[in-house]
Amino acid sequence: MQTREKWRSGLGFVLAAAGSAVGLGNLWGFAYRSSQGGGLAFLLLYILVVLVVCLPVLVGEMVLGRSTASSPFLAPVQAAGESWKPLGWLFAISSCGILSFYAVIMGWTADTFFHSLFIGLPVDMVEASDFFGRISSGNSVFVGQIISLVLTGSVVAAGVRGGIERLTRWAMPLLFVLLLILAIWATTLSGSWEGYTSFLFKWDPSQLLDKTTIRNAFTQAFFSLSLGIGIMVAYSSYLDKNNKLPKEALGVASFDTGVGLLAGMITFPIVMSFGLKDVISESTVGALFIALPTGFANLGLIGRLLAAVFFGLAFLAAITSSISLLEVPVSSMIDRLGWTRRKAVWISTFFVFLLGVPSAISLNFLGNMDAVFNVFLILGGFLISILMGWFIPSKYDQDLASSNSDQGVRRYLKFMIRWVSPPVIAFGLIVSVIDLVQ
Ligand code: PFF
What we know:
It is found in: Membrane. Keywords: Membrane, Transmembrane, Transmembrane helix, Transport. The chain is mainly α. Helices cover 82% and strands 0% of the residues. It has 18 helices and no strands. It starts with 9 loop residues before the first helix and ends with a helix.
């Protein structure tokens, strides 16, 4: 039995968890989803879903990890018995499934970064679709996917402190500061105001009841917070008893929402200023890989430099997320099979690579993987809320009490995870499944 690693500090844990949350989902998902008509209504629903259902579940995952000091595969069984074994499997399948296509998109990101610096970016719409065709097909996709997976594997192989914490400690503050600078720069563009008011902050109250907007709010919240997949269980299993989990969960959720908003405040001014409005709502990846490179390219050499900064940051954000996805199967193999970290990393990385090959070849397949696994995340969140709220509610409360969390906060969380999260997530799950099969 190997001794369990620990985070160097509480802040290290929060930054690693924030690193997992902040990723490509913030950079493309937020902009894409609010451009589908939801605007401010989407944003409000998203914040509501985060506060009402996601925060109690996020704390639930953290408690599950910390109280069992066990990997996501074993923690549910250790906490509540053999009948919870399927939840461990769900975590393992979802994390490998998501990482398989996430690594492909990371590869496109790296390729766009490379084009910004050395080859050049598209300057009009004709060139733009050609550009996207180039980065998303052919052998370069495999190269990007392999580089992304090998880098991910190397960080995870270096361990919790020496790899994950060491990277996220400097990457997250840097990411936030640079995004803030880019967002301030974007306010100076001619179409900035129109960009905010036609998309991000467009107010149409009827959207509050729109099926797609509701599904978008749920999907974005779970995907963006890395919830329902066991990541926070894995990360919290390396924690000490004295971290105040509710406060830390709120910190992670606020940071994550802040980055999503900043990404929107960069994307929409560029889109409006360079007449790229139609691209953005057409496809999930349109904003990130078609509109933004074209917009940046229209600013000449300085634009290419800004594009390099932006796509470099996007890759950094992605890698702090992909390492957390890989940590789920890796920590599970170490605990369950007694493998060394190194062996677990490279075997699971190879498996994830094979699983990702169809997504690297077909955009359609990738889209379907994304849609299906988003539903898995919501299902995972639902099961966690049932586990913590109905099967082991005293463990939930005791763990929070032992770290001196405020009593009012504890009461709120206990009530929410038992009475509010399960029905609301079930509602989100049903709407998502209906929308998926339609
Ligand atoms: N939260 C990250 C993002 O928004 O890109 C990545 C991610 C991790 C997504 C884990 C989904 C997930 F289950």
